[in-house]
Amino acid sequence: MNVPSWTTRLRNQSTVRMKAIGGHLHLYYFWEKRWLFIALAIGVIMLNFFKPTDLSYPGIAVLTMSVVATILFVTEPVPLPTVALMIVVAQVTLLGIDSTDVAKSLMTDSVLFIMGSLMLAVAVVKQKLDKRIAWLIVQITGTRTSSICFGIALVSGILASFVGEHTVAAMMLPVGITLISLTSDEPRSVRNLAAVVLFSISYGASIAGIGTPSGGARNAIMIGYWKEFFYNPNIPETSVYLIDYLSWMKYAYPIFLIQLPLLTLILFWTFRPEYRDLSRAVVKLRAQVESEGSMKLADWVAILIFFLVLLGWISVSGQLGMGTVAVAGAAAFLITGLVRWEDINSGVNWGVILLYAAAISLGLQMKETGAAAWVAQSFLHVLSPFGAESGVGLWAAVSLLTTGVTNTMSNGAAVAVLGPIVLKLAVFADESPIILGYITAVSSAFAYLTVVGTPACTIVYASGYLKATDFLRVGWKMVIMSSVIILLTAGIYWPFLD
Amino acid sequence: MLDLENTSMDRSNRFRILVCIDGSDESFRGLRYASLMARGDDCDIVLVYVRPIDQGLHSGGLQASVARQNMLDWGLELPGVKFLKRGLDILMEEGRFEADWHSEATHTDIAGDPLGDNKIEYSNKKNKKIVLKLKTASDPASGILEQCALGPYNLVILGDTSGTHSGVMSFFDPAVAEKVAVNAPCAVLVARDLIPERGHLVCTDGSERSFEIVKKDAEMVSRFSRPNISVLSVAPDEDGIPAATNAVSQAAEIIEGVGLTVSNKIVKTGNPVDQIVDVGKGYSLIVLSDSGTSRLKRLFLGSVSSKVLDRAKNSVLVIR
Questions:
Q1: A201 within 8 A of A460, measured Cβ to Cβ
Q2: Neighbours of B37 (CB within 10 A)
Q3: Which of A497, A13, A488, A205 is nearest to B290 (CA)?
Q4: Is A87 exposed, middle or buried (0-12, 13-18, 19+ CB in 10 A)?
Q5: Partner-chain contact A14 B151, CB within 8 Å
Q6: Cβ atoms of B17 and B44 closer than 8 Å
Q7: Class of residue B63 by CB neighbours under 10 A (exposed 0-12, middle 13-18, buried 19+)
Q8: CATH number for the B2-191 domain, one of 3.40.50.620, 3.90.226.10, 3.30.1060.10, 3.30.1490.180?
Q9: CB crowding B145-167: b at 16 or more within 10 Å, else e
Q10: How far is Cα A448 from Cα A270, in angstroms, rounded to an integer?
């Protein structure tokens, strides 16, 4: 008999190895999920040993759930929608709330609005108007790289402020990549050009996402919190806490417009593009767009529905609710056949809706059990030695806290977690909950530092043209610029609106 | 089923290298290194590029597939395709691939991604194969490990992705290379500034296990046109020197048994990790055995091999 060749032996050994790994796999499972166990252990310890005198048991339980959920949001050992399911289970088992009441607390107008907006987002992307938008941009801006980038940031921003940044990133990414790849085939020779074009899209969308309530889930969440925390139908004065679409825009839209030119400046200061002129790419882009033919009836109908939805948000959302308008728009797209249900079904990440529903429900529990108030008071104690317990100091602290949190998790989750605490903080510090609420919602958009910070960044990064370190290189400048602008706006512009 | 068994029998007699391409220079250097090893017709090269599917909230509730579908509708290539093509060009430059090879493309649908998994398999008349694979997975490391499980492979080559973070940061986010090196069922080469000419430095501690590794590595080195292999053993103190010297000469015997000559026989005293990292600087790569302790123990205590993997500035090959 022949001695087995070394490859056979290697192969046999690898079979043995595979079996051994089967035995080891459960250990690796624990390692991979270590944050889940760490979070649960912290939860058990808090429930049993954390007994502040001025917080009731339900308050401790809700606080524990928030801490555990926050750790899971940041570290993601399990798929995020799992956290939502765990929150629901814990609300029934730990707090003893009736299951039907928990279920009811999951669906609010804010959640309906987030759901409808996502459906609209898929419908808008499917209309394939991106080539025409791209052509419109270059027709207006000419072929200079800096003008095109400003144009892209402007258009991305305006679109993002109404339909959400993820929609815009998905629509504009091919535009950006087309311009880059038509300029040069070799990705290395257009690295800086790619950076300015792609960051114009993603940051343009990010800074605009705060512009209107439909720009992002966090805005809807904050509007929901204001209403739940402070509005009382029996006291007419509290109706100032019912923020409608237009009054949000009055507060937030100027912040986007001021940041826009600064964004282009920062990008060109950080990355010096290899090409000052993109006429070669623009000529080719023109040829591509011309092959599309003229606008069809369907295109006009899509634009009409889109503007009717905007009009609905601005004019009737106070009476009907923003969520209703959003789902009506989604229904209109489906009725006219402009989008198929299958596309919406596969394009919307339904887990996100579940997650926001659970996070908002938990946020309201934070208020009802007094947990939010307790955390807010503790936070104030920490801030007072620094003189940051009121006024601009407090604003800066809240903005900084939100920026820190939002860079580690999705901005909607950041607002859902921080919102109740910040609003209670405003009450204790005798500040306007409206101002601090806006600061939180707006600061949650300052997730420029990481790839996962904002949806637009994630989508743009997936193109493969950017490095994760690029986000850090330019992100810190953006954070400083945005923080200064929000504080200036809060100090100078907002007082005029009251 | 029979077909599958045939395939795995067929594969077990071949030397199969999995090269993970991420578009970095390092991954292409790793590929060139693989091609030096793949001179014979019994050696196959598989190139894999892993695209993560967005499963979290990161794309804000709109599936990343919507954006990708839109890219495809514009006629744009997704990232990865270009890198794999470049990999094939490199293999052609190195003379490992000819344009007239038979090719066969396969496609598997994956939920949540418009492109799914795609594979092009090139083979020549003697059935030497070069495979390009565009894979979708929840993250790069799992994608590579899934591909390993589909093997069997003899060697996985990947570029170091960790950059500078270590310690606390790696607890939060273990680098892809580290995760693959810990979990892959076969030898893993983590490439860092891989320069082929300098040869292998194989480390032995005199254990039975380490001699097996020496043998395996010698067999791997013999695939090169100009084999170059050296042996190192580190004694913890003066008293350990005779044992270490003995280990080195035993290892040299094994290597000579495979038909190679040993370039350098080195004995050092001191901390094994420091010495290995230090001596290893002058070589293409440091060859270590997987310590054989349990996974959990290794993760918490660390072993010489994982410490060297973490600290060495040049490439490391972990054989198991």
A1: yes
A2: 22
A3: A13
A4: buried
A5: yes
A6: yes
A7: buried
A8: 3.40.50.620
A9: bbbbeebbbbbbbbbbbbeeeee
A10: 14
Where are the domains positioned within chain B?
Answer: 2-191, 196-319
Report the percent of chain A where pLDDT is more than 90. 24
How many interchain CB pairs under 8 A, A with B? 151
Strands (E), A47-131: none
Collect all residues of chain B within an 8 Å Cβ-Cβ radius of residue A348: 61-63
Separation of alpha carbons B228 and A451, rounded Å: 43
For A168, which residue in chain B has the nearest alpha carbon?
B67
A459:B59 CB<8 A: yes
Instruction: Give which of A330, A277, A221, A268 is closest to A474, Cα–Cα.
Output: A268
Q: Which amino acid makes up residue B78?
A: L
Q: Tens of pLDDT along A19-33?
A: 555 544 556 677 778
Q: What is the ipTM of this complex?
A: 0.71
Q: Going by C-beta distance under 8 Å and a sequence separation of 6 or more, which residues neighbour residue A51? A: A60
d(CA B106, CA A443): 47
Q: DSSP letter string over B66-133?
A: HHHHHHHHTTPPPTTHHHHHHHHHHHHHTTS--TTSEEEEEEEEETTEEEEEEEEEEE-TT--EEEEE
Q: Kindly report, residue by residue over A198-230, the tens digit of the pLDDT.
A: 999 999 998 998 998 888 888 988 998 998 888
What is the per-residue pLDDT for B1? 43
Nearest CA in chain B to A218: B60
Which of B8, B41, B58, B161 to mutate: most A Cβ within 10 Å?
A: B58
Contact, A262 vs A203, CB < 8 A? Answer: no
Quick one: tokens of A390?
């009121």
DSSP state of A233: T
pLDDT one-digit tens code per residue, A269-279 = 998 888 888 88
> How many angstroms separate the CA atoms of B56 and B198, rounded?
44
pLDDT tens for residues B267-311?
888 888 888 888 888 888 888 877 655 444 444 445 677 777 777
In this structure, which amino acid lies at residue B134? L
User: Which single residue is written with the structure tokens 């999951």?
Assistant: A106
pLDDT the model gives residue B297:
47
Angle (deg, nearest 10), helices A165-183 and B64-73: 40
B183 Cα to chain A: minimum distance (Å): 8
Identical fold, B2-191 and B196-319: yes
Residues of B in contact with A28 (CB under 8 A): 183, 295
Which residues from A are below 8 Å from B80, CB to CB? 464
A462 and B79 within 8 Å at the Cβ level: the answer is yes
pLDDT band (50, 70, 90) for residue A89: very high
Least confident of A118-122, A180-184, B118-122, B160-164: B160-164
Q: Checking DSSP bridges between strand B15-20 and strand B155-159, what pairing results, if any?
A: parallel
| Contact across the interface for B70 and A187, Cβ inside 8 Å | no
**Residue numbers in B near A451 (CB within 8 A):** 58
Radius of gyration of chain B (CA): 21
Residues A319 and A384: their CA atoms lie apart, in Å, by 42
Distance from CA of A497 to the nearest CA of B (A): 31
**Any bridge partners for residue A135, and if so which?**
none
Phi-psi region of B302 (alpha: psi -120 to 50; beta: other; left: phi over 0): left
Handedness of CA A334, A338, A342, A344 (dihedral sign): negative
Topology of domain B196-319, CATH: Rossmann fold (3.40.50)
